[in-house]
Amino acid sequence: MEKVTGIGGVFFRSNDPTALANWYRDMLGVNLVPQDADGMPWMQEAGPTVFAPFAADTDYFGRDSQQFMLNFRVADLDAMLAQLRGAGIEVSHEQAMDGIGRFARVHDPEGNPIELWEPAG
């Protein structure tokens, strides 16, 4: 059976795509979509990617209308949270799961939840 080799992109609606793309670049280091052949898209580091549909009535993402939540791996959760807090971004849902890692949640300027994950080990 042929299989996909990874996630090639994440696409979602935005009220202000330029401002939101700039926020992801400035706060999380996700490069903007290249505008020409010389530009480089965001290149993620190799590591685990969890693909997990949730029950339709989950409250894990926040608001009922939220159909997805981004989860980004980070090397140093404490450093990332200090950086975000320094920029005035509220952090919530800090937790640790034995054998899985540590998590925290922030929201982008349009209210989309973003989970940050420092994998265990």
- Uncertain runs are none
What is the averaged pLDDT score?
91
- State the helical fraction: 10-25%
Query: What count of helical segments does DSSP give?
Result: 2
Q: Please report the distance between the alpha carbons of the first and last residues.
A: 32 Å
Q: What shape does the CA trace take?
A: globular
CATH architectural type: Roll
Count every beta strand, where a strand is a DSSP E run of 2 or more residues: 4
How would you name the CATH homologous superfamily? 2,3-Dihydroxybiphenyl 1,2-Dioxygenase, domain 1
Radius of gyration: 15 Å
Largest sheet: 4 strands, mixed
How would you describe what is shown here?
This protein has 121 residues and is α+β, with helices and mostly antiparallel strands. It has a single domain (17-119), classed as 2,3-Dihydroxybiphenyl 1,2-Dioxygenase, domain 1 (Roll), CATH 3.10.180. Helices cover 18% and strands 20% of the residues. The chain has two helices and four strands. It has helices at 17-28, 77-86, and strands at residues 70-73, 92-97, 101-107, 113-119. Strands 1-4-3-2 form a four-stranded mixed beta sheet, with no helix packed on it. The longest helix is centred in the N-terminal third of the chain and has 12 residues, at 17-28. It is globular and about 45 Å long.
